[in-house]
Amino acid sequence: MSRTSRGGGRGKDRTFIVQQSFPRPRPTTNPYLVMLARSIASQPGVALRTFSWRAALLKRSDVFHVHWPEILVSGHSPLKKAVRQVLTLLLIARLAVTRTPIVRTLHNLERPSGISRREHLLLGLLERRTTLWIRLNDETPEEAGKDYDTVLHGHYRDWFEDFDKPASELGRLGFVGLIRRYKGVEELVQEFHDVPGDATLHVAGRPSTDDLAARLASLAGDDPRISLDLRFLDDADLVTSVSRSRLVVLPYREMHNSGGVLTALSLDRPVLVPSNAVTERLADEVGPGWVHRYEGELRAADITRALSAADSGSGRPDLSARDWSEAGRRHVEAYRRAVELVRGGGAR
Question: By Cβ atoms counted within 10 A, which residue in 57, 144, 243, 249 is the most buried?
Answer without folding.
Answer: 249
